[in-house]
Amino acid sequence: MRKTVAVAVGIASALTGLAVGYPVLARTACRTWGATAAEVERTMPGDDLLTDPTTVTTRAITIAAAPEQIWPWLVQMGPGRGGAYTYDWIENLMGLDMHSADSILPRFQQLAVGDVLPMGDSGPRMRVAVLEPARAMVLASDDGNWVWAFGLYPVAGGTRLVSRNRIVLPDSPLPARMLYLLFMEPGSLIMERKMLSGIAERAGHTEPASPEVTKDPGARSESQYSAAPAARTLDV
What we know:
The protein is an alpha+beta fold and 236 residues long. It is built from six helices and six strands, in the order H-H-E-H-H-E-E-E-E-E-H-H.
């Protein structure tokens, strides 16, 4: 009995320490890994699509490649497409059908505003809301609770790839919010850091995309995502 009580007290103490320490000591670093203060403050495409988020993360990496070399790797991302360049085994535990590609896949290069990338059978449907070639790609969930933006910013010696997530937890009780704060935010850093590094590694070893690479030689697979008329932005 005493041992059980001691274990319970130890777990409670650890959780309390985590709840108190993480927001004070580590949360800012977790949400802004790799990003400069200017990048965190910068307005990015898609910010206006979710104006009152519960949490915002802005993470970044420098890639020794031009925006045009990085862009094809972004465009082909998604379940059943080019994957997410992160830990596939973790993604697939959630049924996301992620298989990170190590080459540019021409059949997935013709992305358009309005196309939908389902995140598994029960996950959110991410719709392409903004698509500015070699500059910005923004995905927004149909339920309005998640906006994921990628920005490409040329710098000396390469490009800054900036990833911003704006997320709202609607009508969530305090325990659910604390669970997200203490576990999901750090978990998202692990996955996103791997993703950004994966894109950097791949793009840094590719030549600028040729017309043959950026054009789709065949029809798109409608089983992967739904098509919509080409446009520049999408109101959500």
